[in-house]
Amino acid sequence: MGKAGVERLLVANRGEIARRIFRTARRLGIESVAVYSDADEQAAHVSEADYAVRIGPARALDSYLNVDAILQAAKTSGADAVHPGYGFLSENSVFARACATSKLNFVGPPVDAIEKMGSKAAARQLMSDGGVPVIPGYHGEDQTDERLFAEAKSIGFPVLIKPVMGGGGKGMYIVYDENHLGEALQASRGVASSAFGDSRLLLEKFIAQSRHVEVQIFGDKHGNHVHLWERDCSVQRRHQKIIEEAPAPDLGDALRSKFGHAAVAAAKQVKYENAGTVEFIMDVSDGKREFYFLEMNTRLQVEHPVTEEITGQDLVEWQLRVARGERLPITDQAQVPCLGSAIEARIYAESPEEGFLPQAGTVRRFRFPGDPDHVRVDSGIREGDSVGVFYDPMVAKVIATGDSRGEAITRLRNTLRGSQVLGIKTNCNFVSKILSEEEFVAGTHDTSILEKKMENLLKSSDQESRPPGALLAAALTRRLVLLEHYKQISGHNAAFKSNPGFALFELPRTRVRIDGKELVVEETSEKAFQVRDGDDVIGSVVVHSWRSVGSDEFELDVSVEGVRLKWHTVQAGSEVGVYSFEKAGQLFRVDPEEEEEEELDYEDGTESSIKAPLPGLIKAVMVQVGDLVEKDDVLVNLEAMKMAHSLKSPHAGVVKHLHAAEGEIVAFGKALVSVQK
């Protein structure tokens, strides 16, 4: 690359973004340094770097947010530059200034730009001064309730309350009338003070029907600024993006040009350098198409891959070149390409059907089918890795491209439907259903799409929505796995390998456990099987052929109720996955060790065991042995993946046993408290 200043790069981050940055650094001949907490000692990003330095315990405050530890890691490893990634310290001006003081090249914008854009009030005033449209609101220093009430009335309800130094939707409240304003102000101040150390609030006009459109901008040290087109991020849940795409649908050339000009004006207003994103909210109510400045993110965004795909540019390379003092690779706006369409889905370790409860565990299988020329997977984990409880639950980003938006949607939907993830639950099926929603396909959706469609999107958890034969396929797979293991133990493995039918058809009856039920798989006639739950027949299946394609992995050609079906099945750990091209994958729990024993009969009553719904840290035990509790009393506060979970008593009674203590890290399913009726 020609200039000194980025020869050994420390990435002050983890997971997917660290791996992403390492790939570009490796291609450019730059040495890489990983940092890791105790929880990430075996993580993928650690093994892929040239050097790795431990920075502290698992808790983010003690490691990835520990400025002194990261600066010491840079000194120890001999790094001359630091890339912050996204999240953690990426928009922390104190960290950026500390890097400069330590003679480290910070791969990001100047400290001054981070500070100005970090304050929503200051950013709004700067944008207004620069001619960038801003939403009507109040950003003043007078924070008395009297002044805020008066300003809210002047703006007109509904209004949106935000912490001045906030982000990620924390502390934001929508208030529809004056009667609820006082309560919302108190709640928002509390969040602002605890989360950001600054209790100041701002008020904005709430736009009921809107789209979230953002523009990727870049600047260099020579005064050049360009935009790399826009992204639509309107599919959000609780202000967190789920699906992002570029270019934004249904804008038109004239409006697209206005977005780009406004974003570049914003960048010039703060003399911006390196990668940044200018976020806008577009009012689409009553046919309007007016947009307003929302905020500027002074870092590389999670969703940057969709911009890379439509422009053919490596944005991390652009960042590194700018950090070295080079000019932007493209300085003429007219030369920035925009080809085809790209859509990204964020894959989270969570269970949508259980209130989006974060998941943790060992990833037994992690595969996404698709043409590598059109489907890109950026992930922080590999098969065999553990997803823990300390960090954000995003495990991957899946990006699909196409010559048209419709083509990209189809590719992404098919990839998510065919995804094979075992060991943890994910939102793959949930997102694939969003991609099929009529409004989304038409490109006419707004930020309310999930709120309006949530009930329908969550129906995928219903048993009746499972494809025909999926449970039968899971039962047959479990039978094959059990028999295959039996053959290996008993010395008949050669017969199994040379004559696969030997394992499937040799024994007339096999008992298996699927989703907590003891099922019987029995042969009823040649190549025909019946699956029973007690005396109830669940279904019958004719096996035309099958073959082993890996360890505990099979391809089944069957008929169910006269319909020919082809299934790809695999057992990994305590789960069986059943997959087909036409339908989303189905997961079944098969481990008999997982039986839940919620109620134990005693001579004087019934005792219930309250168990951990996911691995986590016990923040507080609210009761002691002998305490009397009522139904829904909070017994334990559990923290997992940056979320608090209050575990409540299922009934009134007396606390008989405590099985966990404050500060203890507990596994999924561990009994925590026993309450006797």
Low-confidence stretches: 489-506, 592-604
Total helical elements: 18
- Strand residues, percent: 25-35%
CATH superfamily descriptor of the largest domain: ATP-grasp fold, B domain
Q: What is the number of E strands?
A: 40
Overall mean pLDDT:
88
Q: Taking strands numbered 1, 2, ... along the chain, how are they ordered across the largest sheet? A: 14-13-10-11-12-15-22-20
Give the overall shape, derived from the CA principal axes.
Answer: globular
Number of domains: 5
Structural class: alpha+beta
The radius of gyration computed from the alpha-carbon positions, rounded to a whole number of angstroms, is 28 Å
CATH class of the largest domain: Alpha Beta
Query: Remind me, CATH topology of the largest domain?
Result: D-amino Acid Aminotransferase, Chain A, domain 1
Helix content: 25-40%
User: What is the CA-CA span between the terminal residues?
Assistant: 72 Å
Major sheet: size, sense and barrel closure?
A: 8 strands, antiparallel
CATH architecture heading of the largest domain: 2-Layer Sandwich
Key traits:
677 residues, alpha+beta, Rossmann fold, Dna Ligase, domain 1, D-amino Acid Aminotransferase, Chain A, domain 1, 5 domains, 8-stranded antiparallel beta sheet, 18 helices, 34% strand, globular
